[in-house]
Amino acid sequence: MAFIEAIRPSADLRNHYSEISKQCREKGETVIITVNGRGDTVSMGYEHYNRMKARLELLEILAEAEDDVRSGRVAPVQDTFDEIRKELKGE
């Protein structure tokens, strides 16, 4: 399983940083760094991080929207578009 291969001891950060970096960037793997055999830190490629962050932000927006619907904070879409048009026109 690829996940098991992505677990590395903290000493590898010092001794094999470029290998870990390549593993994250080129293979798209997430590497779990352990200290005394326990998970401590996670390393991932920058692109992977940005995609994950974007997904989390979208999930937060969707959760807020779901809460708005449950709480009755909704309006017809046409009203919303009309308000946006007024704001854009400076009215």
Describe the structure.
The chain has 91 residues and is of the alpha+beta class. It folds into two domains: 2-44, YefM-like fold; 47-89. It has five helices and three strands; from the N terminus they run H-E-H-H-E-E-H-H. It has helices at 2-5, 11-15, 17-27, 46-70, 77-89, and strands spanning 7-9, 31-35, 38-43. The chain has a three-stranded mixed sheet. The relative contact order is 0.09.
Topology:
Blueprint: H1 2-5, E1 7-9, H2 11-15, H3 17-27, E2 31-35, E3 38-43, H4 46-70, H5 77-89
Parallel strand pairs: 1-2
Antiparallel strand pairs: 2-3
What's this, in brief?
The protein has 91 residues and is an alpha+beta fold.
* Main β-sheet, spatial strand arrangement: 1-2-3
What is the third-level CATH name, the topology of the largest domain?
Answer: YefM-like fold
Low-confidence stretches: none
The end-to-end distance, rounded to whole angstroms, is 60 Å
Q: What would you call the structural class?
A: alpha+beta
Radius of gyration: 22 Å
DSSP E strands, number: 3
